[in-house]
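thought: fold this chain, then report.
action: predict
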Amino acid sequence: MQRDPEESTSKKHGWSRSLTTMVRIRCKGPNWQFLERCDYGCSFSEEGLPDCFGRWVSFADTNACQILKKRQQCFKKAGVVHAEDLAHGQVSDLRPLQVGDFGIVVGEDGSIVIAEVITIYSKTGGKNGKHAHVDNAVNIGAVSNIAVQLFEYSFNTQFRALTKATSAFQTHNFALLPSVQFLCLLRHKPHSASGPFGAITVDMHVQDLPLFRELQRSKAQIHAALKLFRKRGAKGKSAAEADEDGVVE
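observation:
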C-alpha cells in the first residue's frame, strides 16, 4: 500500500503542496523519496533506494525535465539571444512563477509583448492526465498552460492594456498560452497606472527594457524556435502531444 507523499515526506521536510519539480521515486513498498535538484530543475537522489524496492519516476515530473531540455535545444538551434535564460524562463526555486508575475511572452498573433500571469496550469502525467490549477511553479517545463493579460508596447517604458487586436472593441486582451510561449520572467515588477477613460498602462523597469527590445528584434528566431519545439518527432508527435502520453521525444 502506497502512502500519499503529502501525508508523509512533505510533512517531515516542511514542503508545501504547491507545484515543485522534484522527481518522485515511487517504491513497491510504502516508502516515498523526494530527490535533490538536477541541472534542469528536477532531482536525483544522493542516497539510492534499497535494492529490494522496485521504482519508477513520475511521467509528469520526468517530462518537465525533458521539456526544459528541449526548450534549451530549440532556442539555441534557432540562434535566439539569451537562449540559456529563455531555456528555463528565469523560473527557479528562488524565483518561482506565481500569479501576478509579469513576463515576456509570444502573443497569439506572434508579437513579443509582456503579460501578467492570471492562472497557472499543470498537467498530471499519462495520456488521460488532467490540467489543474497550481499556485506557483519552480520549473517552467512543468507548466502546461498560462492564462495571462497581454500588454502591448507603446513608447519608452510604457505598455498599454488596450492592444491593436482588441482596440476596435475597446476591451483588454487575454490569452491562454502554452508554457513554451512564456519566454521569461521580468526581473522587476512593472508599475500599473490608470489613465483617462479607464485606460490601463504598465511601466516596465528600465533594467528590463534592453532584454525586451533584444527579444523583439529576435522575433524571427523565436518563431523558428517555437516551430522546432512543435515539430513532430519520430513517432509523429509534437512535444506537447508526447507530454499527454507521458513521453517527450
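thought: worth noting. The longest helix spans residues 59-77.
final: C-alpha cells above.
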